[in-house]
Amino acid sequence: MGYWGTVVVARPQGLLVDQDGMSGFGYQHRWLRDLGDGWQLVETRGWNDPPDLVGPCGAVAASTGHPVFAAYVSDGDCAVMCTAVPGVVGSLTHLWDTSGPCGVYRHQPDGMPEPIGRSVDDVVAELTGWSTSAGLRADASVLRAVLDHDHNAAWKPADDLLFDLVQGLGVARIGRTTPWAFPISRRPFTLITELMGGLASRARSWAVYRRAEEEDGDSPEPAQPWEGAAIALEEELWASLYRPRVDVMALARQVVEVQTAYDEASGDRAGRAAVDPDRLFESLFAGLVDGTLQPDDPEDSGRRWADERATGVD
């Protein structure tokens, strides 16, 4: 599977992951990078992508008082971009064929307008103007070369091209990824956050099924208490990822509480005995208790691959 997700470039007051308006792009702010001169880049995702780029671009530009660039990448094949300056949001533009909407992927939420057709000259002019507004110095020749990239002549993933485009905007560098406060890509936290099988993903999926049943006139089973707790905890885990003083043990205890509630609900249906939360914590999270759990595994988390995009020393 190729790259899926949204890349956001902005100049926040603090960390871009905490900036007002960023939640509109998604809540899984996995990678945070320094671009120099106060600019930062975030790679994020939501549960039900693609996001609407127009609204969040305007919101982040308003909250920072600086220009914003964002793009959503579909499976590493193509992307859609949007720029904004305070008070003005640009048109959605398809990459890497700017002439019209994509014929393969959905680049906007259902019911929202798709990208308009534009010339490469028009897009280069927009990006160079954006760069000037940002106090940067774009390289128009680089921007044109990236926008004119011919996939048929030499394949390059859309996410790699997107990072080339960001460099062409005139940022000082593409920094390495910022360290996490805790290993969200490893147990115990993946019990909640894992895309396939994590409790938050299950809860969100079941909520969709219930709505579909209600629309069909059926009466679905009511939601279990653990479902809302799993969704709320997943959002809290991602929101805490770059908070250096976060109480990791307390987060792990919350994972146990949600997992216990899920197991008990499942056990009631299957006639199994109730779960002992303390025993569950000790068996699953021994690495947290004895201090042997490492902050991050670059291979498991994808950090090593992500850092290959870096162009300068932080």
Helix-strand blueprint:
Elements: E1 5-10, E2 31-36, E3 39-44, H1 54-64, E4 68-74, E5 78-85, E6 88-89, E7 93-95, H2 120-133, H3 140-147, H4 158-168, H5 190-193, H6 199-215, H7 225-239, H8 248-270, H9 277-284, H10 286-290, H11 298-301, H12 303-307
Antiparallel strand pairs: 1-3, 1-4, 2-3, 4-5, 5-6, 5-7
Number of domains: 2
- Helix/strand/pairing category: alpha+beta
Q: Which regions contain 5 or more consecutive residues with pLDDT less than 50?
A: none
- State the helicity in percent bands: 25-40%
- Radius of gyration from CA coordinates: 21 Å
Biggest sheet descriptor: 7 strands, antiparallel
What does the overall shape look like?
globular
- Series of H and E elements: EEEHEEEEHHHHHHHHHHH
Number of helices: 12
On the 0 to 100 scale, the average pLDDT is 89
State which percent range the strand residues make up. Answer: 5-15%
Distance between the termini: 30 Å
Number of strands: 7
Biased composition (Basic and acidic residues): 300-314
Region (Disordered): 291-314
Polypeptide structure, described:
Residues 300-314 have a biased composition (Basic and acidic residues). Residues 291-314 are annotated as: Disordered. The chain has 314 residues and is α+β, with helices and mostly antiparallel strands. It is built from twelve helices and seven strands. Strands 1, 2, 3, 4, 5, 6 and 7 form a seven-stranded antiparallel beta sheet that branches. The relative contact order is 0.12.
Please name the defining characteristics of this protein:
314 residues, alpha+beta, globular, 7 strands, 2 domains
